[in-house]
Design a protein that fits this description.
It is built from 2 helices and 2 strands. The chain is of the alpha+beta class and about 80 residues long.
Length: about 80
């Protein structure tokens, strides 16, 4: 009973859904093309190409963060090996 009351109150406060609420941005469909080849009995498909661009400074920062993360994990891994 309480849940029904809350639902009615929420519907009254929020009002009916608008047409904009139903619009969902759907990604473009990917269409794969069969290449005519098989790899280990499995058909090989070619996907459409995509373009990727990145800011070089962002990549540099990401690499240095990964290096720091790896440096922190190294002593932990060495401690596990020596304890075993």
């Amino acid at each position: 009973m309480t849940v029904a009351g809350i639902a009615v109150l929420a519907a009254f406060v929020l009002g009916p859904p608008s047409a904009d609420a139903c619009k969902i941005a759907a990604p473009a469909p990917l269409e794969a093309v069969f290449t005519g080849e098989f790899d280990h009995g499995v058909p090989v498909y070619r996907l459409p190409s995509i373009s990727v661009s990145a800011d070089r400074s962002v990549e540099t920062a990401r690499r240095s963060a990964q290096t720091r993360s790896a440096d922190r994990a190294r002593p932990l891994a060495q401690g596990v090996r020596s304890a075993g």
